């Protein structure tokens, strides 16, 4: 099996685990802890999806893409379009949110940092550390 295929499989597993962690946090705790943990995990999930789609992507690049996407979604909430879509679709509400909240921008950065930390600790297929 090629390293890119192994990376893609690892990213898919990581995406599933991240999704489960996000749902678990939402089910186990309430309030700000659940909200901000969910924000951080949202960006971690986007990082894993970037790697799943483009397994040769370096972690810093994947983290940057995911962080910018998270910030773009949050800033789009200032337009009201995500809120309108969220009224019509549960999926849109989960993916796009509905209300801008400035602290979310920080927690998305925390999520990208968490992804980079995990990449620094977990060996890449082939035995090398991510850089």
SS-based class: mainly alpha
Mean pLDDT: 91
How many strand units? 0
Report the order of strands and helices.
HHHHHH
The outline comes out as globular
Poorly predicted runs are none
Cα(first) to Cα(last) distance is 22 Å
Strand content: under 5%
Oligomeric category:
single chain
| Helix percentage | over 70%
Give the biggest beta sheet.
none
What is this structure, in a nutshell?
This protein has 131 residues and is mainly alpha-helical. The chain has helices spanning 3-28, 31-53, 59-76, 81-88, 90-96, 102-121. It is built from 6 helices and no strands.
Name a few traits of the molecule.
131 residues; mainly alpha; 6 helices
Protein described:
The protein is an all-alpha fold and 131 residues long. The protein is built from 6 helices and no strands. Helix 1 runs antiparallel to helix 2 and helix 3 (59-76) packs antiparallel against helix 6. The longest helix has 26 residues, at 3-28. The two termini are 22 Å apart.
In terms of topology, how is this protein built?
Elements: H1 3-28, H2 31-53, H3 59-76, H4 81-88, H5 90-96, H6 102-121
């Amino acid at each position: 099996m090629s390293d890119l295929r192994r990376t893609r499989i690892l990213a898919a597993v990581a995406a599933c685990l991240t999704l489960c962690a996000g749902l678990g946090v939402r089910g186990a705790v309430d309030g700000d802890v659940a909200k901000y943990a969910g924000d951080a995990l949202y960006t971690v999930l986007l990082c894993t999806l970037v790697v799943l789609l483009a397994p040769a992507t370096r972690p810093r690049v994947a983290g940057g893409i995911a962080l910018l996407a998270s910030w773009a979604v949050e800033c789009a909430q200032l337009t009201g379009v995500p809120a309108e879509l969220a009224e019509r679709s549960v999926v849109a509400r989960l993916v796009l949110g509905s209300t801008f909240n400035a602290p979310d921008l920080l927690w998305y950065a925390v999520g990208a940092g968490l992804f980079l930390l995990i990449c620094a600790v977990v060996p890449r297929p082939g035995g090398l550390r991510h850089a």
